[in-house]
Amino acid sequence: MSQNQNRNEQIGTWRLKVGLAEMLKGGVIMDVVTPEHARIAEKAGAVAVMALERVPADIRAHGGVARMSDPEIIKRIQDAVTIPVMAKCRIGHFVEAEILQALEVDYIDESEVLTPADPENHVWKHDFTVPFVCGARNLGEALRRCAEGAAMIRTKGEAGTGDVIEAVRHMRTIMSEIRRVASAREDELVAIAKELNAPLDLVQEVHEKGRLPVPNFSAGGIATPADAALMMKLGAEAVFVGSGIFKSGDPERRAEAIVEAVAHYNDPAVLARVSAGLGEPMVGINVSSLPPEEQLAVRGW
Amino acid sequence: MPETVGVLSLQGDFERHLVALDRIGVPGREVRTVADLDECSRLIIPGGESTTLGILLRRCGLDQAIPERARAGMPIWGTCMGLILLAKEVEGSDQWTLGLLDVTVRRNAFGRQVYSFETDLTIRGLERPFHAVFIRAPIVTRLGVGVEPIAEHEGKVVAVRSGKMLGTAFHPELTEDSRVHELFLNL
Prior knowledge:
The structure holds 2 protein chains of 2 kinds. By secondary structure, chain A is an alpha/beta fold. Helices cover 42% and strands 13% of the residues of chain A. The radius of gyration of chain A is 18 Å and the shape is globular. By secondary structure, chain B is an alpha/beta fold. Chain B has a single domain (5-185), classed as Class I glutamine amidotransferase (GATase) domain (Rossmann fold). In chain B, 26% of the residues lie in helices and 31% in strands. In chain B, the strands form 3 sheets. A 7-stranded mixed sheet of chain B has the order 2-1-3-4-12-11-10. Chain B has a 3-stranded mixed sheet with strand order 5-6-9. Chain B is globular and about 40 Å long. Chain A binds chain B through residues 4, 7-13, 15-16, 19-20, 22-27, 42-48, 78, 82-84, 101, 104-107, 129-131, 256, 259-260, 263-264, 267, and chain B through 9-16, 32, 47-49, 51-52, 55-56, 59-60, 80-81, 93, 107-108, 111-120, 133, 135-136, 154, 171, 174. Strand 2 (9-11) of chain A pairs antiparallel with strand 7 of chain B.
């Protein structure tokens, strides 16, 4: 956080960082690799786009080391749309994060989808003006990321598979751990914090509020309107869709349908209408067939 | 009709408005359908993405129902995205809006998220300054007949009132200060 003395303004505050996440609630954040994709996403009702060189499915197929996108690609996407533009840096790669901040992206995703740059540490996100989102598989991981300054958490799921099972697993785990913390006695929280490997003050905050300290979104394997609505019903407050849109047969219609499904996730009649006639979904990979070394969700500490 | 404040809940920070209403003891309810709107005496359009909400409103009939209720005198307040959706015109864009407030707005007028800011603001009708949170905020660049500017930041209009309509470029729902919510309830 800093102060612009001349204008009596504070920038980069925690409230501004979490505030932007609040504005994205009930929305769909879409992965895009070209300005054309970005315009399609915006027209379909995306609340934000994630500017990438490759969608996760192609990162998987391509193999090798996956890094921050070329700034040229990010700038072209920023010029194409008026909605917020996010971009990914590698876990722990704070210089990539500094570059993304210099590019004025609206949110940085410190993401397991890219190859981690640090085997132990994540970026110390409090030092930045731009807010960060981080992935998590369980409550302990989510609270460690909050401690480092993440202003939004998303379930990791298993990106680039089109298989929703891991997103479901991670959301159910986080929500049931939150319920457990909320219903625990106050004198049990130290032991729970030890077990979760999470800072005590944040465990106490979860105990008090019955929710994460920051908005809780979902990502990783969402391919259909029904998948998106399922994640909302399980407790997600918004949804990231990566490969699921632009790897499908009719990205425009699928994007619109997922946007409507997230807004009306409690209305099966709307879900039935928007799910009809969308063409081929992304082919997908069954997560249980993935060898352990190809699973992205285990990246992050 | 007993006072029930609807908060448009298709997308955005509607939950924060509901919390703010709860804090001052006013019944609030989520509005996702025309039937929900029928239960409300006032409407708040929260912060969020105006392009997204414009699409969602047109798909569920609220694009017709909200103007009908506005013409019948229902008070409406838009915060940030809500102000954009109430505006008659968006600078440099043919973006769809409800067009209920005769102003022109400029979206993202202060720049991207790294330029989002908090500041103390003087608002006409409030005695003490109000701590205002601006997130990728718009400004009002043209005031139509009968539209009264009620707050400026660096000479830019950031809050307006016109009859039963209130528009703020900032987010009173993100602070603990309920005075702008009370201002709306007195319209």
